[in-house]
Every structure is written in C-alpha cells, then in structure tokens.
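This part of the workshop introduces the protein records we will be handling. A record pairs a protein's sequence with a compact description of its fold. Backbone structure tokens are a discrete shorthand for how the chain folds in space. The question running through the whole workshop is how a given chain folds. The record below serves as our worked example for the rest of this section.
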Amino acid sequence: MDDGRKTDYSILLARVSALALSIVLGTGMGALVAGYLIIQTGAAAYPENSLVRNILFLAALTDLAAIQFVKRYYISRLRNDINTGEVAYQALLTPTLVMAGLCSAISVYGLVAAALGSPMDVLLLFVAVSLIGIQLFRIRNRDLESLER
C-alpha cells in the first residue's frame, strides 16, 4: 500500500472509530447514570436473580461473537474496493455503526440487569465489556492491508 492511500485509510478509520467510540461511550454513560438512579432510589423492587443475570452475560458474549462475524463479513465485502484503490467513507461507516450498535446493546443489558436488582458493579462490568469490545473489534489499518495481499 502506498503512503498516500495508507494516510487516506488512516484518516477514514480515525473518523469512523471516533464516531463508534462516541456512540458506545454515550450509551455506556447513559446506562451508568440511569442504573445509578435505579439502584439508589430502590426502583428495582426485585431481588437479584442470578439466572437472568447469567442469561444477560451470555447475550453479551453472543454479541461480542456476532461483532467478529459482522467485521469479517464487511471486510470481505471491502476487498473489491481495496483492489481498485477506493474505499468510501460509507463502506467503512456501515460496519462501524453496526458494531457500535452491538457494543452499545451490552451496556443496555447491564441497565436491564440493574433494573432487575443487580448491584452497580454488574452494571459497571457490562459497560466495561462494551467499551473493551469496540476497541478490540474496530476496523484497523491492518485489516485493510491484509486485503491487499
């Protein structure tokens, strides 16, 4: 990959990664505030249910696995664009928004767990997994470079 195209990819990836991180961070912070208010006001009148919490953990792990499949699918669709030398912003934006949505859902699972009586540390765990997930699975330069080989 020549330096000009590599710089273009870097700029595009930086823009979409910042957008994804903003979405996931905003959702996570919203879930934390709402969960804190639910827990502190005692609005969660139910005792903690470990079965529901474990199902929500399983759903979060399933979302993380789905993110990997979504990433692979969209990266493989980018192969033709990479070989012609043009990667459109929209081609990178779509998978990034899908992955950000899946990661944001993990924070919402934590909010549901908090509403069902789980303590604050369970909510914090879900939000942390959400933020780690977007950092682990975001599209990077090396993903695009591997397509050129």
Observations:
- The mean pLDDT is 83.
- DSSP finds six helices and no strands in the chain.
